[in-house]
Amino acid sequence: MNTPSKKRDVWGSKIGFVLAAAGSAIGLGNIWRFPYVTGENGGAAFVLLYIIFIVLIGVPVMLSELAIGRHAQRNPVGAFRKIAPKSLWPLVGLMGVVTGIGILSYYSVIAGWTFGYFIKALGGSFSNLTSAEQSSQIFTEFVKNPYQCIAYLFVFLTATGFVVLGGISGGIEKWAKILMPLLFVLLLLLTLRSVTLPNAKAGLEFYLAPNFGKINAGTIASALGQALFSLSLGMGAMITYGSYISKKDNLAISAGYVCLFDTLIAVVSGLMIFPALFSMGLDPSGGPGLVFVVLPSIFDKMPGGIFFGAGFFLLLTVAALTSTISLLEVAVTYFVDEFNWQRRRAVLLMSGLAFVLGIPSALSQGANSLLSNLPLVHLGFLDFANILLGNYSLTIGALLIAIFVGYKWGIKNLSAEITIENNHFYGRPFWAIVIRYLCPVAIIVILLYILLTGNYF
Ligand code: PHE
Q1: Domains of the chain from N-terminus onward
Q2: Tens digits of residue pLDDT in 240-253
Q3: Is-contact 21 58, C-beta < 8 A?
């Protein structure tokens, strides 16, 4: 193991960290994944479960990851090793590094579509859409084209590698500060248009009036997976980001802000998508193509639609970029810290690996029939990876992190890290109970429930 000899880079300011961590959290998870998973799982009841999981599992695991990272000042594997030497705990960190590269691979495919849609919007492809079918057809044809999808995947991963090469305060932080607020403004404008479309009410009802009959083991697992995915938890991204936070910052407050911003963006995205979707008469359980089919028709019904359409997909690409840099950063920090690799070498090899692994996902939307419908699971490769890594791996990671902090590292040490430099740990007794008992028990019960009912997907 290497002890980092140089002084570690730190975030330039507190707000810079909150925005960068929010940048990791806010991304396709909120605007692409949240609406489609909500649609597949029946709407409002799922949203309610998701919010409960954010508060009771997301916030404490976020706090735990940030504290582990800041305390150890290392990548996830090194952090577990420093706190619990000669144990199996570093394997949890390693699982995170592997999961991160896996998520990066398919996530970048969707990010590539987003960038491709930016180019399409610029070229006026969404002007004069007359029907929902027309919009669906544009999407199906776009994702079926293997060369295009692989080329966009390549472009996107190159951009990710480029920013990660710039290091912490110079690269990631600078971008996040400017672009995240802009995305939010555009999201609000599109939401305004969506809720004033004809028949928007049916969409609002689907999204906001819960029907608990629609909940089963699969719904619960997806809601938990979505909460963790959206907050970038369970794979060490927040351990890595935490390792660059200054000791002066109050972790509890920063964690709270990140969770709040992320949830706000997801909830607003739902408000943007569902009214428009019902107004177009589309099926909410349409799968991963949902936002790509629905959004163009909103632009079409706005003055300056080309401008809004292109602007939105461009900012969404950037939001995806601030997430992929955190996915890549986990593996890069790992190789730089543990094996003394040059940053450049780590970036090249890891983004190259993600590119190769991303190809089957890029071909799974109609370009290749086997990859589009895998035997046994009857899902496309991308969907399958998204559930396996984005739900289950993160859920198991979060379970192990809660157990680690609750029982191995201990609430006392967690609290000592948080209250360093006279910072206050708000609600300490409450969070202690949540981390030690509620999080692990809830996650274990959910996993058992899924095992027993066989409702895996
Ligand atoms: N949270 C990111 C999003 O919502 C995705 C992500 C997951 C990033 C896990 C890092 C780690 O888009």
Answers
A1: 14-453 (1.20.1740.10)
A2: 989 888 888 899 99
A3: no
